[in-house]
Amino acid sequence: GQQVQQSPASLVLQEGENAELQCNFSTSLNSMQWFYQRPEGSLVSLFYNPSGTKQSGRLTSTTVIKERRSSLHISSSQITDSGTYLCAMERRDRGSALGRLHFGAGTQLIVIP
Amino acid sequence: GPKVLQIPSHQIIDMGQMVTLNCDPVSNHLYFYWYKQILGQQMEFLVNFYNGKVMEKSKLFKDQFSVERPDGSYFTLKIQPTALEDSAVYFCASSLVGGGYAEQFFGPGTRLTVL
C-alpha cells in the first residue's frame, strides 16, 4: 500500500488565501523533504525537515515524527505558487538502506486571480 | 544552493538502442540516486549507489539497467536495450551522507522518449 499519503489531491485557491497541505506516513520515518514540481517537471527543493518547524518566506513546514505526519503551509498564496507539491520520506527500518525516498502522489495547487 | 546537473535534458531514441544518462552530482557528495517519473505518475526510486557499489535497487531497476561512476566523473544510468516502458523523466540526486541524515539534492531531470 501507499506509504506516503498526500492530501488534498488538488486545491484551488484565490490569490491571497492560505493553504495547508498534508503528508501522512504509514511507517516511522528518518527524514522527509518537501518539493515543488514545476509544470514542466523540474523539482525545487522547499524543505528538508526531519522534525520540528521550518520557515522560508511564505512557506512553513512542520513535521511531527510521533504522529507520522508533515504539513506545508502556504500563506498569502500567489498565482506563481501554482504547481504540484510533493512530499517524500525515508523510512526508519532496521538495516534500512541508505536514503531511499518514498514519494507521495502530490497535491496539485491552482491559484486564481 | 548546491546544484546537480543532468545531461542531456532530453533524449529520443528507438526501442532496442542503448542510452546513457549522465549526472554531475554535488562535488563533495558521496551518495547517489536515480528516480523515475512516468508522465502523470508518482516519482519512484530506482537505485542508490555509494563507494562504487549499488546499495539498494527497486523492482523498477531491471536487468537492462546499470549504474556506475568511473573515477569520480559522471554518475551514469545506462539502459541496454531500451523498451517503450522506459519512457519517463529520470532524476538524479546526491547527498553528503546516507540513511536520511542529509538532504538529497535533485537534478532537473532527463526526459527520455523511447519510440
Structure description:
- The complex is a heterodimer of chains A (113) and B (115).
- Chain A is built from no helices and eleven strands.
- The mean pLDDT of chain A is 91.
- Chain A is an all-beta fold and 113 residues long.
- Chain A has a single domain (4-112), classed as Immunoglobulins (Immunoglobulin-like), CATH 2.60.40.
- Chain A is globular, with a radius of gyration of 14 Å.
- Chain B has 115 residues and is mainly beta.
- Chain B has one domain: Immunoglobulin-like.
- Chain B is 0% helix and 50% strand.
- In chain B, a hairpin with a 6-residue loop joins strand 7 (65-68) and strand 8 (75-79).
- The model of chain B has no long low-confidence stretch (mean pLDDT 94).
- Principal-axis shape of chain B equals globular
The count of DSSP E runs of length 2 or more, i.e. the number of strands of chain A, is: 11
| SSE run of chain A | EEEEEEEEEEE
Assembly state (oligomeric): heterodimer
* CATH class category of chain B: Mainly Beta
CATH fold type of chain B: Immunoglobulin-like
Question: What portion of residues of chain A belong to β-strands?
Answer: over 45%
Q: Using DSSP, what is the number of strands of chain B?
A: 11
Main sheet: strands, sense, barrel of chain B: 7 strands, mixed
How many separate structural domains of chain A?
Answer: 1
What is the N-to-C succession of helices and strands of chain B? EEEEEEEEEEE
Considering DSSP H and I runs of 4 or more, what fraction of the residues of chain B is helical?
Answer: under 10%
Specify the CATH homologous superfamily of chain B: Immunoglobulins
The average pLDDT score of chain B comes to 94
